[in-house]
Amino acid sequence: MAPPPSSDADEPSDVTSSDPLTEDTTATKKRSLNSSTAGTLTLPSSSSNTPEDSLHIPLLPNLPFELIIEILCRLPVKSLMQFQCVHKSWKSLISDRQFAKKHLRMSTKDHHHLITTLANSERDGFSYNDYPLTSLFKQVTTTAMQLEHLLTNGGYRFDHIVGSCHGILCIAIGPGSVLLWNPSIRKFTKLPCLDETPRPEHDYQFSFGYDHSSDSYKVVVSLYNAIVFINGNRVFNPLVKVHTLGTNSWRTIQDFPSGLVREDSLLGKFVCGTINWLALKIQTPPWIIISLDLEMESYQEIVQPDYGGETTLTSLKLGVLRDCLCIFSRSSDTFTDIWLMKEYRNKESWIKLFRVPDIRNIGYFPSVCALYVSEDDQVLLEIKSQYTDGVSMPLDIQSKLIVYNSRDDTFKDLNIQNTNGVKLAGAQVYHESLISPCF
């Protein structure tokens, strides 16, 4: 039986890694810690003089409350979840939305994590492992925190991770169904079903991001309509819908620009309040970047870098590095260039960050994607390739995680993706946070 929804009015009895995943889709409860319209945190008033209701903290009697806030907002989420048990005022502070935003702004790169999706079997579905990113660049073998037991309490069969924003993961759990989950605080919410009569799973293309103007999170879905074939390519005129977290329905917005060839495997990337897709068109040049502004809900084309006339591009992929839009351009099956747009929408700000040489024995038709770049220029790569049994055609697409050191041009296999023969199905970097997906 699934555990009951969490309640902000209840004191946490034991906040540890074995806590059940909780779901709460009700309106946010009124906090005892007040938030001003300017977004500042203020001391809550107390109508009682009893010791247990007082804001006096016995453990830190000489520190002003404002200094306690500054200290706590720099701590890891796991510690803060435990500290909710210290005092009622601490619980009110740590569960406050404004404090969660301040913590997100103040938290360091040490709070970034990698979550891997493992394909166990068709019967068991998927499971998830969590790794602090700092440990991946320092150790050959990394101990993972298993997350799959938290997910099974919800009764869902999880599919692929669509994207992440502010510590919230967007996960497609079936045709027309999406789940928003913050693994750091173990809370999730399931969005309303998109269609009464679900379509085939490949007809949906979900993306996830944040609209700063309205302080809201939005899920965007492209529904493949009017599919035709031109010169062997599938051309789509997608219907686009948006769900704003906290509402109960999906809204239809302006259709995706028509006349484009969309690849099913390409997901929209969130950068600077926009969702960005890599698309194909019949004309020349074939590759274009389409951007959807989440505030205006309108589209525009993003100018690409100058790849150089001497190179022959065989594939392009979009990504996000250092909070900037990036492109992984593969040329002549010998190397992959990583391009970074330092200032969004400024075509002059494109720079070539790294050139990653090919790795031997990684299978056929490799696809290279950079997930993260450390301060000392080590690059976490996800490489997807096709493998064969040596006789027949390629059998399967497999993923592999590798660290590339751009300073000495070396590679290191992390050896974390295969445990007892389990196949890595995907990986996603997210920022540990207190932001709740429940409204």
Describe the overall structure.
By secondary structure, this protein is mainly β. It has 2 domains: 65-107, no CATH class; 109-431, Kelch-type beta propeller (Neuraminidase). It has helices at residues 65-72, 77-83, 88-94, 97-106, 133-136, 148-152, and strands at residues 22-23, 112-121, 125-132, 145-146, 161-165, 168-174, 177-182, 187-190, 204-211, 216-223, 228-230, 233-235, 239-244, 251-252, 260-261, 269-271, 274-281, 287-293, 298-302, 313-321, 324-331, 335-341, 350-357, 364-373, 378-387, 396-405, 410-413, 423-431. A 5-stranded mixed beta sheet has the order 1-8-7-6-5, with no helix packed on it. Strands 15, 16, 17, 18 and 19 form a 5-stranded antiparallel beta sheet that branches. The longest helix is centred in the N-terminal third of the chain and has 10 residues, at 97-106. The protein is globular. Mean pLDDT is 76; it is low at 1-22, 24-38 and 45-58. This is F-box/kelch-repeat protein at3g23880-like protein. It comes from Trifolium pratense. Residues 1-53 are annotated as: Disordered. Residues 57-103 form the F-box domain.
Give helix % range: under 10%
Annotated CATH architecture of the largest domain = 6 Propeller
Shape summary: globular
Tally of discrete structural domains: 2
Poorly predicted tracts of residues? 1-22, 24-38, 45-58
Strand order of the largest sheet: 1-8-7-6-5
β-strand amount: 35-45%
Rg, nearest Å: 23 Å
According to CATH, what is the topology of the largest domain? Neuraminidase
- Termini separation comes to 24 Å
